[in-house]
Amino acid sequence: MKLFLPAQTILLPSPVLIIGTYGSDGRPNIMNASWGGIASSKPPCISVSLREATLTYHNIKQAGAFTVNIPSEKYFKEADFVGMVSGRDCDKFKQTGLTPEKSKLVNAPIVKEFPYSLECNLVRQIDLGPLNAIWSGRLILACIQCSLEKLSEWSLIARF
Amino acid sequence: MKLFLPAQTILLPSPVLIIGTYGSDGRPNIMNASWGGIASSKPPCISVSLREATLTYHNIKQAGAFTVNIPSEKYFKEADFVGMVSGRDCDKFKQTGLTPEKSKLVNAPIVKEFPYSLECNLVRQIDLGPLNAIWSGRLILACIQCSLEKLSEWSLIARF
Question: What is the complex's ipTM, to 2 decimals?
Answer without folding.
Answer: 0.87
